[in-house]
Write a structure and sequence with these properties.
By secondary structure, the chain is mostly helical. It has nine helices and two strands. It has a two-stranded antiparallel ribbon with strand order 1-2.
């Protein structure tokens, strides 16, 4: 059954509580674009104008990956912050909401059953289940389902928690990236409201002062 919901995009001030469109069966890029295009137009414009920076991330084992930093553009207002918080809340409460314990453990048990291992005592099995629940508990059900499906179809050995975590992170990477950008917009707009000055307003003032000093 599809999880796709309709969301009106003709208005830039859509009221809260309307479901954002989302179907985990879609390709990640298309799914992300549909979700982004359903946001209020002021947020879309800010997302288009933001600055993207990338830098290498290193761990004790050396190079890990390339991390993306996204910075909101100048001019983010408290109204933008309110819109971003509203969209962020819906994404967090629905699309990225953690899976229930029953769903998570059921999916993990089914996955591991495809790769039989040595028999363990009931006590150890319970501890193992608690470890899986603890280490995958942050992910939504659809991401865990996708990770399990991908492992079944591409691997011939029993998975580790770290391997399934990596697949879960990959499954919802686009949605987490959008949530991070909305969170950055919200924080920028809230800082503007606290200071009473729009972001970037200091630059014209400084430029004017420098001209008068010449």
């Amino acid at each position: 059954m599809s999880n796709l919901h309709q969301f009106p995009t003709s208005s830039s001030t859509a009221p809260p509580g309307l479901p954002l469109p989302f179907d985990p069966a879609m390709a990640p890029a298309l799914r992300s674009r549909m979700l982004r295009d359903a946001l209020p137009e002021p947020l879309q414009r800010l997302l288009d104008r933001g600055q993207v920076g990338r830098h290498s991330r290193f761990t004790e084992d050396g190079f890990a990956d390339v991390v993306e930093d996204w910075t909101p553009p100048d001019g983010v207002t408290p109204r933008h912050a309110a819109l971003a918080r509203r969209a962020l809340s819906e994404i967090a409460d629905t699309i990225l909401a953690p899976a229930s314990a029953n769903h998570l453990l059921g999916r993990v048990l089914a996955l591991l059953s495809h790769f039989p291992a040595k028999a363990t005592s009931p006590e150890v099995e319970q501890l193992l289940a608690m470890d899986w629940a603890d280490d995958l508990g942050e992910f939504p059900a659809w991401a865990i389902d996708q990770a399990a499906r991908r492992w079944r179809r591409t691997r011939k050995w029993r998975p580790s928690i770290a391997e399934i975590r990596a697949l879960c992170e990959d499954a919802c990477a686009e949605e987490n990236a959008l949530a991070d950008r909305l969170r950055a917009i919200a924080m920028a707009g809230e800082r503007t409201g606290e200071s009473g000055n729009p972001t970037g307003a200091v630059r014209p003032v400084l430029a004017s002062v420098m001209r008068r000093m010449r």
